[in-house]
């Protein structure tokens, strides 16, 4: 529902907040309205704290110049960690790094693609951090690349595409085992399932 249609019943500042919240992923019109009125009922201090937190994220968080994960310092703490091994785990989104780190199974580093190949949505390989990955592999000689993209159509297509590019570079390419639900996103998988899938990863 547009701001113009809602304006007769809703004050313009509230209508604008509803419209902005509705742009967030997974937030429909009803949820956006509930969130907006929750903010309206909250104390000024809580509302200001929320606004400042959003601005703080936009002003202080950058992408790591090595792995492209979100970070406050460049390079990020994982890329700077000397105890990590040379292997690289390729994921679609920064949230996937958070999920995989909870398992404690990965001792290497990460590379965040920021999406998956999806011709339907107009997302080709050039929109992802794929060339940066190939440069890293050539420079770092990681030994193993774990393709931990999601187990849905776009994630599988991306893994297949990367496999074709990586094998000629002389690295071992693996994929997490099938303990993960087909069609599921890594960020929603529980720690035990993720851990077992990583421990049983298979060569591609």
What would you say this structure looks like, in words?
The protein is an alpha/beta fold. The chain has 2 domains: 3-60, Helicase, Ruva Protein, domain 3 (Orthogonal Bundle); 63-203, 3-Layer(aba) Sandwich (Dna Topoisomerase Vi A Subunit, Chain: A, domain 2). It is 45% helix and 11% strand. It is built from 9 helices and 7 strands; from the N terminus they run H-H-H-H-E-E-H-E-H-E-H-E-H-E-H-E. It has helices at residues 3-6, 12-21, 29-41, 44-60, 77-80, 94-103, 130-140, 153-166, 191-199; strands spanning 62-63, 70-71, 88-91, 109-112, 144-147, 172-175, 202-203. The strands form 2 sheets. It has a 5-stranded mixed sheet with strand order 4-3-5-6-7. Strands 1-2 form a two-stranded antiparallel sheet. Helix 2 (12-21) crosses helix 3 and helix 6 (94-103) crosses helix 9. It is elongated. It starts with a helix and ends with a strand.
Short description:
The chain contains 9 helices and 7 strands.
Radius of gyration: 20 Å
Question: Could you tell me the strand content as a percent range?
Answer: 5-15%
Query: Treating each run of at least 4 consecutive H or I residues as one helix, how many helices?
Result: 9
Number of strands: 7
CATH topology of the largest domain: Dna Topoisomerase Vi A Subunit, Chain: A, domain 2
Give the spatial strand order of the biggest sheet. 4-3-5-6-7
Q: What would you call the structural class?
A: alpha/beta
**Mean pLDDT, nearest integer?**
89
Keywords:
204 residues; alpha/beta; Helicase, Ruva Protein, domain 3; Dna Topoisomerase Vi A Subunit, Chain: A, domain 2; 2 domains; five-stranded mixed β-sheet; two-stranded antiparallel sheet; 45% helix; 11% strand; elongated
